Inverse folding.
């Protein structure tokens, strides 16, 4: 089925550990983004990409890195996990043309202890 | 800068009654407006969008939304609520010059039998 696939679904990390959240889409969408969802704060943009080789920061980029080597994949790297990064992470993709909405993955629930 | 406000953390309505979930926005250019719904432990699902044209937009599951440019609002409505409509609803906006969607903080809709 076409869509956005996120792995893993759940993860527990110790403070200081690093990990990569995976995101893949098979809809040939140019635009991909990562959001984090925290209670009462909605979704906040971490990083986004408008195409392979092009990435940019969102409103809460600190502590996260991204790269976009292919159209399909957009991994999010946590460099040194902190308890403040405990959250639910969503990957989303879209066509770049104006007016298209996003397709979301099912999320990764991350706990940093 | 673009922003979205959802002034109600929670909306309670009885099954069969009409429902409204409020959203106001701020953008520098023409707005593209979206509503998404999130069921427990799931990703966000697209409900409807306003790009241009008719101010009343119809979407999935019987929902509709009214775009009001003078009041900068995009309220979500449904004539007759169902218990199964109980979920978290997000309003989102982007303007013509930006790629990223900005989300509101979300409104929890509780429909009582």
């Amino acid at each position: 089925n076409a869509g956005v696939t996120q792995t893993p679904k759940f993860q527990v990390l110790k403070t200081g550990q690093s990990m990569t959240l995976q995101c893949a889409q098979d809809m040939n969408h140019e635009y991909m983004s990562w959001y984090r969802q925290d209670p009462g704060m909605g979704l906040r943009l971490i990083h986004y990409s408008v195409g392979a080789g092009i990435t940019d920061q969102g409103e809460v980029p600190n502590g996260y890195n991204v790269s976009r080597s292919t159209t399909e994949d957009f991994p999010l790297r946590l460099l040194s996990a902190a308890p403040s990064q405990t959250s639910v992470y969503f990957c989303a993709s879209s066509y770049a043309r104006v007016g298209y909405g996003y397709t979301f993955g099912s999320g990764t629930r991350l706990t940093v202890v | 800068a673009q922003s979205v406000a959802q002034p109600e953390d929670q909306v309670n309505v009885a099954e069969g009654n009409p429902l409204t979930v409020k959203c106001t926005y701020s953008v520098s250019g023409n707005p593209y407006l979206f509503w998404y719904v999130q069921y427990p432990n799931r990703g966000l699902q697209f409900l409807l969008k306003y790009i241009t044209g008719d101010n009343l937009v119809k979407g999935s599951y019987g929902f509709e939304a009214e775009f009001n440019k003078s009041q900068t609002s995009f309220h979500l409505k449904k004539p007759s609520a169902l218990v199964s409509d109980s979920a978290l609803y997000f309003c989102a906006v982007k303007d013509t010059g930006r790629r990223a969607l900005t989300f509101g903080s979300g409104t929890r809709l509780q429909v009582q039998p």
